[in-house]
Amino acid sequence: MVKVWSTEDVHPRDRTTWWVDQFSVGCHVDSEPRRGAGFFGRATVTEIAGGLQIGTGVASAQVISRSQRQIARGDDRFFLNVMSSGQGLFCQDGREATCGPGDFVLSDRTRPYRFIHDGETAQTVLMIPRHALSQRVGSAERFTAIRIDGGRGFGGLLSPMLQKLAGQLSHIPAVAHARVAENVTDLVATALLSAIAEEPVSAGMTHVRIKFWIETHLGEDLSGEQIAAACGSSVRHLNRLFAHEETSLMHYVWERRLSRCRRELTDPKMSDRSISEIAFAAGFKDLSHFSHAYRARFGRTASEDRPSSSVNSIGLGTS
Q1: What is the pLDDT, as a whole number, of residue 73?
Q2: From edge to edge, which strands make up the β-sheet containing 41-49?
Q3: Could you tell me if 152 and 172 lie in one domain?
Q4: In the chain, N or C: fewer CB atoms in 10 Å?
């Protein structure tokens, strides 16, 4: 479901009042638009999965505050604000962050903050349940009001993806939304950790970095020893981390490979690739083994999961 607030159909003289009444109440913030400037605003919020939501917005100059009055209404989440255009000054916990196009900053909805926009701005806002972020980075409060550069490094990789996500959700199968939510939260956690790399690394932080490393090396011939060495840990320690998710290191690798294969097999845009190409690219070495593992995991053969117009020439999974 998509929620929309827009002044488009509101008479210009009433737009400021309408925005304060409708948007502020709906989003539990205090909005102070700049008076007499022909105010306009539009915001949308879309559910992804698991409590993760994404919003987009464009508006004239305004100050957005989270006051004690609004905090009392509840909302135990973190917001990640990504600036698409314009500039904003974010203040929380005695810190200030000036963000320009592409930059992003984390806010905690359980404590007061102010976001000052001196002119027209457009932004994407990722709304993250507290438990989802805290279990990945520990005490997430220490990341608030710290600008992350959206033009280089990990921020440069994540920022464009987040800005495109809302527009692409309708093209992603609903069954994949939970995986999207999990992966996006992992990537956000990694970006936050990268921003203050000097901080001590907790077990939860290590877990996120391991998952990210695995995701970017799935196509390789991975072993527990190789992963542990690359992540500066031991196989035993990594298995203890994954045990909290009731799995093991290599079983996680296996699951991610199968999930990647299914995502590509069900994507019509990948119909020109054979099942064997997709399986090999995900790190499988034996096609018969892949076929049986796929059917055991999803209850369908790989061929059955292909769009009907693109049944693969190799009859994998038909045995």
Answers
A1: 87
A2: 2-6, 41-49, 52-59, 121-129, 77-85, 104-108
A3: yes
A4: N
